[in-house]
Amino acid sequence: MTDTISSTRRRLFGAAALALAAPSLARAQQQRPTQRPPQRTGQPQPRQPQPPRPQGSPANTPLGPVDTLARHALIVDFETGATLLEKEADVPMPPASMSKLMTAYVVFEHLRAGRLRLDTELPVSERAWRMGGSKMFVEVGQRVKVEDLLRGVIVQSGNDACIVLAEAISGSEEAFADLLTERARALGLRQTTLRNSTGWPDPNHRMSCRDLALLAARIIQDFPDYYRYYSERSFRFANITQENRNPLLYRNIGADGLKTGHTEESGYGLTASAVQGGRRVILVVNGLPSMRIRAEESERLMLWAFREFENVRLFGAAETVENVPVHLGERDTVPLVAGRDLVMTVPRSWRQEARIAVHYTAPVKAPVARGTELGRLEVSGRGVPQMSVPLYAGADVPRLGFVPRIGASLRHLVFGS
């Protein structure tokens, strides 16, 4: 007979408990305000002005509603994938030039596969030259290096550069758009359908905030050698220097990418990533009313994510989370391990609310192979982003021989263990 076991702990075991508790105590001591005697001047002290609150509708967060002017918004932790803030994050929306991230991703794939090189020179068609909107200012008949075209797409948001790359890879922009959609679906971008390489307005050209955040994470993870282009603040081509439109690159908050977007339909949007203290956060906002508000709102939300949340290491890759009974095995138990370092994102002010539940079915029948998934570890609690990860057998457990199995079976029948 087997039973499903749930082991729930309000306190995180081992070093994880100290990791959650000790920093909060230290921070409480460090942040205790110095008491000052009241000033007796005879004049009332002026109240400090409060920062204006945005007038938009609220986004959902583990800490409660947070107002934002963005029509769509999402903030995720890069390492854990925890959602820190979301507002209409899974609704398909016009991404404008933020969809150029998918164009760049496909170009990066071709570079990695050797089908393109950074010094490959591509011809500029009349269609690319005539393309409106933001431009790199390539000339018809000119041949331009792939690396320059990538900088034209990433730094200058050049629609003409996108079409040159699209035609070189797929023969036409229409065929390239089909390839973009196909690759997006393969990456798990469920709400993405792309009709062009540029983000040019089209009623069927759509992505969601979550798709953009996932795509940004894949660019950072899959192509670290090319991701550096997103942090470049300017690029000069055809004797014209254009600045990167990403406002967070100039705000000294650790931002190093990725892409802005704007059309009349979409409003002002930004997909951005920043690193502080070794922790990376990805933000996507869209539907903002102006460039100024895009800069202010994205900075405010990014700093909020760093200020309110932190990452805590729960277990090492080979550290035993739980020991599970084994039936008819050469060992009585098998350790459950995560197979990778387990890190969870928790609010700084709610860390003691975190709970861990370990779910598994026991006893496990021998033989057990190392690496077999045997259970799950779930993290929850008030204000804590939910997390669920698989747990695996940390060792091989061979089955007992015939004679020992008879004895073990008799013991199980008589004593129930």
TrEMBL record:
GO terms for molecular function: serine-type D-Ala-D-Ala carboxypeptidase activity. This is D-alanyl-D-alanine carboxypeptidase. Residues 1-28 form the signal peptide. Residues 309-399 form the Peptidase S11 D-Ala-D-Ala carboxypeptidase A C-terminal domain. One of its GO terms (biological process) is proteolysis. Residues 23-45 have a biased composition (Low complexity). Keywords: Carboxypeptidase, Hydrolase, Protease, Signal. It comes from Elioraea tepida. Residues 46-55 have a biased composition (Pro residues). It holds the Pfam family PBP5_C. Residues 23-65 are annotated as: Disordered. InterPro entries: Peptidase_S11_C, Peptidase_S11_N, TAT_signal.
